[in-house]
Write a structure and sequence with these properties.
The chain is α+β, with helices and mostly antiparallel strands and about 150 residues long. It has one domain. Strands 2-1-4-5-3-6-7 form a seven-stranded antiparallel sheet, sandwiched between helices. A hairpin with a 7-residue loop joins strand 4 and strand 5. The longest helix is centred in the middle third of the chain and has 17 residues.
């Protein structure tokens, strides 16, 4: 997520600050399913998301990244290595997932490779997000608006 305040500190101090919350809310979380983009937007309900959850026979999923821990930009090699670790962690949990990308609508922050992990609870998703030092993840549940979950 964007380091809008210059040089952010880790954790609690900035994760729920207004600029960060606004950045999380102004991000499109996108996965490609059957050749079509499925866009997840916090606090919005989407029939495409509901269809995706139904297709995967789950009631919920979480959009998680390992890029840029605590909203501090890292280089591409470091981010890609972290993404590979996230994929391995999801596979160890034997969860189905689709890779995607989180992109701020203002395009000032580089897109972040991410995963939409199917069939996880909010608690499990939060644990995974914290493991990869994220300030927030996005949880989707069938028939409900996407929910940002702030982790610190």
């Amino acid at each position: 997520m964007p380091a809008l305040l210059g040089k952010p500190l880790e954790g609690i101090l900035f994760s729920r600050s207004k600029p960060y919350v606004n950045a999380y809310l102004a991000t499109d979380y996108v996965v490609r399913i059957d050749g079509k983009d499925v866009v997840i937007r916090p606090n919005e309900r989407s029939s495409a998301v509901d269809k995706t959850l139904s297709r995967f026979k789950v009631r919920g999923a979480a959009f998680i990244t390992a890029f840029n821990p605590y909203s501090r930009q890292r280089g591409n090699p470091v981010n890609l290595a972290a993404h590979a670790q996230l994929l391995a962690a999801v596979r160890r949990r034997q969860r189905r997932f689709v890779e995607g990308v989180g992109q701020g609508r203002d395009k000032r922050w580089p897109a972040e490779k991410s995963v939409l992990v199917f069939g996880v609870t909010r608690t499990t998703a939060a644990i995974l997000g914290r493991r990869f030092k994220q300030n927030a993840i996005v949880f989707v549940a069938l028939g409900r608006p996407a929910e940002p979950i702030y982790l610190s």
